[in-house]
Amino acid sequence: MMNLTIESFNIRCCECGKRITIFKSDLDIEVSYYDHGDNCMGIEIIYEIQHEISCPKCGNDIEITFTGNEYPEGAYNDDDATISGAEFIERPSMGICYQDEFDTDEYAVEATGIHGLIAQISANRDLIYDVTPREFEEIVEQVLRDEGFDTHLTQPTRDGGRDIIATKTGINGKPVVFYVECKRYSRKNKVSVDLVRALYGVQTSDKVNKACLVTSSYFTRDAVDFADEQNVMIDLVDGDALHNMIVRSAEQYNQDNFYYWQ
Description:
The protein is built from 5 helices and 16 strands. The chain is of the alpha+beta class and 262 residues long. Helix 1 (113-123) crosses helix 5, helix 2 (133-146) packs across helix 5 (239-255) and helix 3 (193-206) packs parallel to helix 4 (221-229).
């Protein structure tokens, strides 16, 4: 039979830009048959998947349709994919599939949402530049949780260095409080010293133990030097260090029997 050749794919909402992962297991396929009559190659089998969702961020209506056909039976002939309300980040296609391709470990759990996104980014670092700023904050929050922090993701407003409030028990048994600011920048757009100074100002004003600035990019030399001058008060996490954390999280999901598709 025919079905999608990948187990998940990503789309982006045309209204708000949110990245959404669609899993094949959530799609229903309808099969119909067309008889071309005598002296032809038998029955043509037509497959169609129609899927409607609302964007979880803005409520925008999204419709996705896949079609494919076998003619003669068992032979890939053609396929098509259309979408409205969103765009494909990667365009999936249909092909001939067999039942054993769908068999999975009975103890496996499919990782969806941020877990699934982390799993994908662990395998392809460049995907971090495709996520929205809010998704970037959610990814950072999750990897901090995986590192043992208790976290609170603040509302998506001008929070002045408080994207995430993270706490961890110190060696004296008392909680250490971190203000975490997240900057999803392109690879070449480095974080300036001005942003690090501003975060330090918020930290000292609120008398918080530590501050941390996390970016998908890198920091300017002035930014690194300023952070070093504050001793252990500010941590800077660049794209390399963040990706290492993401890889550790993905490996943890594997060990915990999460099942995700790449």
